[in-house]
Amino acid sequence: MSNSDAEETKTSIHQKCRFDTDDADVTFQSSDGIQFKLHRKYLEAYTGAFPGDSARELRSDRPTDVTHLTESAEILEILFQFVYPRRHPSLEGLAFKDLAPLAEAVEKYEVYSAMTICQIRLKPFIPEYALEILVHGIKHDYSELVNEAALHLSRNHRPLDQFLIKLPNNAMFPWIRYSEAWGSIFEKALQLTGVHHNEESSATDIPCDRCQTLIVTYIVKLERVSSLSTLSARLDAGLPAESAKVIGNCRRGCPQAKTATKCMERVIKLCKDGITSMRPFTEFLKETTG
């Protein structure tokens, strides 16, 4: 979206409603000093958390007159449009820097009419802001957002300790198990090559050292891929052409002519099946909270 389009979107969202009517009976002030005069009856009808008990707990210079909120005027101006019985903004084109705090405010004040549209608008931002959306989804129990964001982060190679500190406490251990589940896919793939001896592999299943090295290198590189879509594409592509040619024509070291080729096919199938059958992250969360 161009800058002009973004400005037009922002203007269209903000110009629809003025909150300064004479018959308003409750006043809120934003963190940057802008006041909004609203009608208590609509707040009570369309929200669950203000101007009731939660609002009274907020800072207020004159509690009976002005209630101070922690959100900026830009966010509140959008938020308050959802508490009146009129057509609500679609939020289409709203930048993530505005959508994210809006979505948090919607949950904080329980503005029911805005909850669904915020989650719909957050989804397209998952590829770029997966961690922020994962945290939001966990905090407010949006399973679809959580699972889609977790998939995007499943190939995240940031040091685990640096990643975990950004998660809610109840998600730390589930994420460790989730990461281990992903790692086990590639560990099992390595076992198929015979690099880790196991009882399930017979001598005729294990390729020669040269072919084994090529397949193991392929698996190691797969595990390092930082994007799930790229990982799937690499699996579809198989071994690089030169390596595929070597294992396809191996006649000397391998027990049988197609040993390495069949091993490679099993590796790809195992990885694809592992990705397809990976349990959603919400199931790992439930194991902790259940």
Automatic annotation (TrEMBL):
Gene3D superfamilies: Potassium Channel Kv1.1, Chain A. InterPro entries: BTB/POZ_dom (IPR000210), SKP1/BTB/POZ_sf (IPR011333). Pfam families: BTB. Residues 22-122 form the BTB domain. This is BTB domain-containing protein.
